[in-house]
Write a structure and sequence with these properties.
72% of the residues lie in helices and 0% in strands. The protein has 7 helices and no strands. The protein is globular and about 45 Å long. The N and C termini lie far apart (54 Å).
Length: 97
């Protein structure tokens, strides 16, 4: 396994944070404001350059309605389809009421 592949595999947390931020339509600044950090810090978490402290990790997890364990150990990149289907279902139900 090359260094790049290892870094990508090892950066599941960063990928998850970035993916959740994007499917929720948030910018780096918006997530940063929610957890009282700058956009550069969030960007560094996403790239794997930096690891969040436990209390920050808990705040990010809570912000997205996930557990810390999910952020660290579960590949959440397939949530886009789930999130979009949930939004479509809500739209459909509200339109039908």
């Amino acid at each position: 396994m090359s260094g790049i592949e290892k870094k990508d595999k090892d950066n599941l947390l960063g990928k998850n944070i970035q993916h959740l931020r994007k499917i929720h339509g948030e910018t780096l600044n918006e997530l940063g404001d929610s957890v009282f950090l700058g956009n550069t810090t969030i960007k560094n978490y996403e790239s794997g350059e930096r690891d969040p402290k436990p209390q920050i990790l808990a705040a990010i997890a809570k912000h997205y309605g996930k557990t810390v364990d999910e952020l660290i150990h579960t590949d959440l990149t397939e949530l886009s389809e789930i999130f979009q289907l949930t939004a479509l279902k809500k739209w459909w139900l509200h339109g039908r009421l």
